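Hey team,

Filing this mostly as a record. A colleague (T.K.) asked me to run one chain through the structure pipeline before their review meeting, and I want the input and output archived in the tracker in case anyone asks later how it was produced. No errors, nothing strange. Just documentation.

Input sequence:
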Amino acid sequence: MRALRTIVLGCGLLLAGPALAQEQDVKKLIVGKWETSQKVGDKDIKVVVEFAKDGKAVVTVRDISISGTYQVKDAGKVEVALNLKDGPSKGIYEVKVTADMLELKDTKDGKVDKFRRAK
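Output structure:
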């Protein structure tokens, strides 16, 4: 019985290993400044998102900055909480990140925003 328990526990750790490694990669790669532009009407608006190592986040649209926090969750998701005038606003996003590309997919409406690492 003890041997069976050890085998089951070992298999569980083997399956959890890649998920934990992926979460650690996201935590490392997401840190930095990311930028994109979005078309609103006939104007392109620059959006910059900065994720700090300490869990703080800043979103800048044109010359307006909104501060907040972020937390990398399991299964490749990140929770972002911004401090808006009307009160806090939270969102959960599916994350795909590489050294120079960040993709955030809103889990509520499926909207995808693609960012490039700022130079």
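Quick notes for T.K.: The chain has one domain: 2-117. Confidence is low (pLDDT under 50) at residues 1-22.
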